[in-house]
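Dear all,

This email documents one entry for the complex benchmark we are building for the journal club exercise. For each entry we list the sequence lines for every component of the assembly. Then comes the predicted three-dimensional structure of the complex as a token string, followed by one or two observations. Please use this as the template for your own entries, and keep the labels exactly as they appear.
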Amino acid sequence: MTQRSLVGALLASTLLAGAAQAQDVTLTIESWRNDDLSIWQDQIIPAFEAEHPGIKVNFAPSAPAEYNAVLNSKLDAGSAGDLITCRPFDASLALYEGGKLADLSDIEGMANFSDVAKSGWSTDDGAATYCVPMASVIHGFIYNRDAFAELGLEEPTTVDEFFAVLDAIKEDGSYIPMAMGTNDQWEAATMGYQNIGPNYWKGEEGRQALIEGKASLTDPEWVEPYAQLAKWGDYLGDGFEAQTYPDSQNLFTLGRAAIYPAGSWEISGFNNLADFEMGAFPPPVPAEGDGCYISDHTDIGIGMNAATEHPDAAKTFLNWVASPEFATLYANALPGFFPLSDAAVEIEDPLAQEFASWRQECESTIRSTYQILSRGTPNLENETWNASAQVVKGAESPEDAAARLQEGLSGWYEPQQQ
Amino acid sequence: MSESRPRIRWHIVVFLAPAVLVYTAVMILPLFDTLRLALYDEVEGERVFVGLANFRILFGDPLWSDAFWNALANNFWFFLIHMAVQNPIGIALAAILSHPRLRFAALYRSAIFIPTILSFVIVGFAWKLILSPIWGIAPGMLDAIGLRSLFAPWLGREETALTTLALISVWQFVGIPMMLIYAALLSIPEEILEAGECDGVTGLSAFWKIKLPLILPAIGIISILTFVGNFNAFDLIYAAQGALAGPDFSTDILGTLLYRTFFGFQLQLGDPHMGSAVASAMFAVILIGVCIYLFGIQTRIRRYQL
């Protein structure tokens, strides 16, 4: 057994040198994307195996909610796969610091990624990167094009136009203006606050200032998104307080709601369900001519188990994941998950194309609460869920919510304590 | 001489061993290990003994203590609803079912008991759908009797969410007190009731004066089962409202607080030591409750030899 794996390892190193022949190495991928099983098995893995004979890849996903726990115990027990799909930021950082994920800073493919793309899987000082960025998701609004045509509406670009459109839909009465609920809380935070917020705190600039302690959550640029959310309550469906995430999705795809505050990951699901034409617009800017910012959140990466028996084969695979070829394949197999590599990628799905086009017009940033700021107790991300839901319901004023978050953050985060 | 020395009765040890070993391995050891874990913390990757520091944080730091007292208060409300609604209804149903002239009694008994064997996930999901303001049948049914204005998104409002969930739980578990009381009622000998009839105690007054005192011990057992069950509850809240126990933690009970602390949630990483502290506090609450019952109430309940 050991002898065979030794032979395997030796062969794997010859593979990398380009003289690939003979005995197969099998790599196992740990992932939470069980929705994507068929895409990996039918499209992605065959494409890799065709190019790299001698390496077999096995995609072994577990349920998303259990992934972190399952992965951690597998890594501790030494039974985890060779390749590890990485959650962004602290969950993976903890694995790297615990010596479970290998440092990948020096694999060639890493040159294809910008620092923002790598931020989700780099140490705080950016010195080491331990996962290859795979995809990001972009926030915006998906709308029912047929409904807009019927009511003679156009895509809003400013906040005033946005509310004018909502008023018009509400007045007409045949559609619920916007499909969002507060029951699951994260919708209000992720599709609401993190969606429209970057336009106010100016993307990366504001996010970095917050991390460095130069800005605080009670500053106007961080409170204003809440003030906007507070106005949303009037345009949501009846009983939105008890509306869940799947309820919102169904309200929109059944054509009962006109606008859906979205993440691009919805695209492939919505394409299958909606029988009307869909369009998308980026979060509206506060005033005509303001620069626009979008949340282009790093969501999935892939790294290497530090204890793998086939490090060379694993690196071959990771280099391939970093290549433009993989980016194109992945982006089109899963419209709405956008490759993070710098290479230009042709996306075929029109809705996904629309989302991706905003990258040219607007500045990209990631969700404000994900890097560093959710490391302590209370957890800023979870608190933001709560605060956003409270503000949308009108149960808490934007100022109170912001003050509460700031109090929680400065309770444990040193740069915010001065 | 040798005969007077008490012999070790090995068969007792042998027969007890399997149960004791299994119970120790899966219940007693983990329990004490949890209590032990609550006294440690992880500092720079090392597990170090910190004494009662975790408890000092849990009760001293407003961030933690607010969450804990909120969860405990919610838990008491959850328990009160069960005591005030589930158990009286259970007793009433049992009294009606034990009426000798009731037809289809077996059918009613099964129908009322069936929700008890359903999974929490099914119950939580089904009720969420029933009460959904969008697809639910509750608004339509209220509309049909002209009471549409009474409908509200109950599960989404802070004031009503916990009570609604408690009532859902009551709906699910009302079969248990019903069955226990039903069994207790059936065990009351006919002669006693007949003797009562001779003295002119019939109908409702027979229930209050004869049956109720006789089933009091059963009611006591049910109360303590309800108490332990409610303070260990987690599943229904998790299935219906998620681990954040929304809206605004109004449905957060000790079980969901423990879950979030121990296993983490979304970006919040799990903290087994703080989680163990919460678990120990839960254990203490339940232990105190059970002790109050055992020493304060059970010993005073008068038992009748039937």
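Observations: The interface with chain B takes residues 68-69, 89-91, 94, 98, 181-186, 237-244, 247, 250-251, 369-370, 374, 377-382, 385-386, 389-390, 393, 395, 408, 411 of chain A (CB under 8 Å). Residues 2-16 of chain A form the longest helix (15 residues).
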